[in-house]
Amino acid sequence: MFKTRFTERLGVKYPIQCGTMMHISDAELVAACANAGIFACLASAMYPDEESLVNELNKLKSLTDKPFGVNVSLFPGHDARTVEVTLDIMAREDIGIIETAGRSPEPHLDKIRQKGAVHLHKCARIRDAVKVDKLGVDLVAIVGAECGGHPGMEDIATMVLVPEAASSIEAPLVAGGGFCDGRGLVAALSLGAEGVLIGSRFLNSHECKIHESAKQKLINAGLTDTMIIQRSIGSPVRVLTNEWANEILRMENEGASLEELLPKLTGQLSGEAWFDGSDDAVFPCGQVVGRTKENLPIGEIVSNIIAEAEQTTQKIGSLV
Ligand SMILES: Cc1cc2nc3c(=O)[nH]c(=O)nc-3n(C[C@H](O)[C@H](O)[C@H](O)COP(=O)(O)O)c2cc1C
Fold first, then answer.
1. Which of 109, 199, 281, 283 has the most crowded Cβ, counting Cβ within 10 A?
2. pLDDT at 266 over 90
3. How far apart, in whole angstroms, are the C-alpha atoms of residue 285 and residue 23?
4. Rounded to the nearest whole angstrom, what is the distance from the C-alpha of residue 316 to the centroid of ligand 1?
């Protein structure tokens, strides 16, 4: 059930991707997703050198025999040389699926394709989706304004973005931003997507190693407890509302420069705070944390999504 070009091209059972999450998408999380029949990518940017990245890839390969991918970040902070070096490691390690996001992958296409890897690119604007589609990317993901991590500058909600993107590109579309359940999966497919991208929901999974108090903060959060920072530097991020994020927004509103903001924004702070339970950092997450109230094993999250999607499909069928 739910066979699409997404399931065919990525070789997975279900049309669901666990969104790549910096500091979080490690070998155990990605393997748990793969073993549950969905697609996920290792966040290569978490590993500071070739040795640690290759060790993690070996661990991942030992934990699953199902397809998985590796995310190669093109966000500012990852210069072209770093990207090329990472892509060479992917080729040496025979990684069959590469995900890019953050900037146009055009300068790196030859390296991405050097071993015939399937290429998925994630973006947040229709024009970027159209551009990468013309470049021949195998799958295109698009995220709406409610997503965790980086929404676009344009504040277009998933509901509007997804059908427009689906009508504008040839490649299979993956819809992201605000999804967490089976009704969402059916909605994404109805809007023209061929897979659904779910990030924040997996923060509250057994295999996600963030601190129990961080998981509890997400469970306690309501629909209005996220906010967007970093608009002033052209790189918006949706995060959990807390004192730290409010202080950043205050500084932005007062015209703080990038140099003044950087010490507050550094990803290293979040990387530590997710795991030590501290509040002194930003915690990227989407509005959907307001609908995520249970910490469950990934296999159970996935089987719940599929069961609800099947029920929903039958219910809609009975209405026709
Ligand atoms: C904690 C966290 C970290 C993220 N890190 C990355 C990242 O490193 N690279 C990336 O492309 N997207 C990143 N994202 C975005 C997700 O891959 C995905 O696009 C997003 O979570 C989908 O929206 P949702 O949170 O509403 O499900 C991150 C999201 C979260 C919640």
1. 199
2. no
3. 13
4. 30
Residues 205 and 216 occupy one common structural domain: no
> Can you give the residue range of the structural domain that contains 10?
5-209+294-319
pLDDT of residue 80: 84
Tokens 């490690």 belong to residue: 26
Cα of 231 from ligand 1 centre, angstroms = 17
Together in a domain, 135 and 188: yes
- pLDDT tens digits for 208-264? 999 999 999 999 999 999 999 999 999 999 999 999 999 999 999 999 999 999 999
Does residue 238 share a domain with residue 113? no
User: Once rounded to an integer, what is the mean pLDDT over residues 114-136?
Assistant: 97
Percent of the chain whose predicted confidence (pLDDT) is above 70 = 100
Contact by Cβ (8 Å): 178, 146:
yes
What's the whole-number mean pLDDT along residues 56-60? Answer: 98
Pick the residue whose CA is nearest to atom 11 on ligand 1.
101
Q: Does 1 have pLDDT greater than 80?
A: no
H helices present in the chain, as ranges:
5-10, 27-35, 50-63, 80-92, 109-113, 126-134, 158-168, 182-190, 212-220, 243-253, 258-265, 267-276, 298-319
Q: Which residues, at least 6 apart from 60, have a Cβ–Cβ distance to it below 8 Å?
A: 27, 30, 31, 42, 68
Say if residue 62 is in the same domain as residue 142.
yes
Residues with CB under 6 A from ligand 1: 19-22, 24, 43, 71, 73, 101, 122, 143, 146-149, 176-179, 197-200, 284-286, 288
pLDDT in tens, 130-158: 999 999 999 999 999 999 999 999 999 99
| 227 shares a domain with 256 | yes
Q: Which helix (H) or strand (E) holds 101?
A: strand 97-101
